[in-house]
Each structure stands twice: as structure tokens, then as C-alpha cells.
Amino acid sequence: MKNTLYTLACFNHIEKISKITSGLSQACYKVSADKKVYFAKTITDNIEAPVAIYASKSGLSPSVIYHDQHWLISNFIDANNLASSTINTDDKIEHAIKLMVRCHQLTAKPIDLAPADIINKLINKRHYCAIQKAELRQLTEVILTPINDVRAGVCCHGDLNFSNVLINQAQHTWLIDYECACIAPIEYDLAMFIAVNNLASDKVTVIIAQYQDQFSVSIDPQQLKHYLRFCYFINALWYFNTYQEKMQIENKQSLLNHSKQQRYALQSSFKAYDSTLLSRLGIKLTNILATLDLSNQA
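Given the sequence above, the corresponding C-alpha cells read:
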């Protein structure tokens, strides 16, 4: 795939191509060509490029210079990401929420979030036996039933991991990687932000307040909790599936660790409630996840 970069019409002469190994999804490269530096990312659908173009035109993301069905080429930003930044977590949250608010105001129209379809795709993998699949589907029903999509959807990033925010020395920030972009309620994007960054529960109130201070909307804390469970669930499955499928990847063990973190957070989200019904659900959740013993499959 790397060699096809030499054939792209956006480049006259490529001097150097270096693989970027920090990502867990698509292959990415730093390309030195025509006395400039570019970022090249492989894409597999028609979702990411249109949203990235909208975001680049608004100054939210690096400028897109070329795209086709396989590649998205943008200007290379010489900056660190928030995940590796030494600034404190509260400052990271503030930077990320500002970018999220701007993303939600984009007029791009990616696909609608389809929670059931996402879960089914993750469960229907060869990594799970028939019994595990049946039990995971029982858990799916528990998680999806309370989700209420009465709020009109916005353009959600869908994976606002701190690693997807670039920050330079002047503290200017850019949002990148729109492969998970979708139309969904604000609460979904906030929930995924909390889940994927493993943010503590005591940060939730601060995050809601920061969002509402910058955008005149009311966040539904209950729906945010429901979406949090959904996000913990799909993240645990995604990390575990990727661990099983990526035969050669740096820090492969970290994928399994991420899966366990999301699994434990999901369990804790049920235990945090006192009602008899939710207590029973918490027990059911523990039993189901015990059947899918991730540690024994490592």
C-alpha cells in the first residue's frame, strides 16, 4: 500500500516516506515531497474524507490537499498530541472540549450512529464461541434498552481520544482522525470522550459544565450515563478484537490492557447504582463478562 503513494497525482517527487506507528487503526505515513511535508492516511470508506474536508475548511483540522478511495493526504503538523503532552488532565479536557464543540457545529453529514449494528459487528467475530455470543447479546439488550435518541444529532467525532488532538508549543490545537465520525446526540460524543480516555467519574460534572459553558445546550446526565455503558462495552470488544487480529503490532499487550480497563469501567458503572433492578443487572453483567474471560485468552 505504501508504494501507491508514489503514484498519487498530488505529488510530483517524493523524497522520503516514514511510517507513523503510534496509531491502532489505519496505516499512516509522513511524506516528504516537493519540498513540503504531508500526512498520509489510508482510508477504507467514504466517511472520513468529507468530514475532514469540512473540518479543515473551518480551521479545526489540518488542510486536506488530496483524497481518493484509499488515501487522505493533509498538511503535516509539527506538534505533539495531547496524550503525550505534559499539561495536566484538566487542561487536556479543556482543549478537547473546545474542539468537540466546534466539531458539533460542522454541517458535515456522516452516517447516523447505529448502536445495535456496531455491537453486532463486534460480536460476530470468530474470537467468540456460540455461548459467548449469546451472552454478549443478552448484555447488549441491557445496555441498549435505556438509550433514548430524542435529541437531534450533531456531527460527532466519535473517537476524541487525547491522541487525536494535536497541540503545538503555542498551545494551538487541531482535531484529527474522523474515521468514527457520525451523526449522534451530543451525549454520545461526550461519553466516548470520557470512556476512551479512561477519565475518572469525578470529571464528568466538570466536562458537562465546560461543554455547556461553550455551547448553549442542556446535557442530559442520565443519557450520558447510558451512552457511557455503551461506549465502555464497544471499546472493550474493539480492543479485544484488535488484539486478536493484529499479529504484529507494537505494544500489542496494551490492547488487552485497554480492553480490561473498559470492561472494569463498565462493571463499575452498574455497581454505582443502589436500585434493586440495577443491582441485579450488575450481577448479570459480572457473570456474562466472567464467561468471556479475557485474561485467559491473552
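The chain is about 45% helix and 15% strand. Try to locate this feature in the C-alpha cell string yourself.
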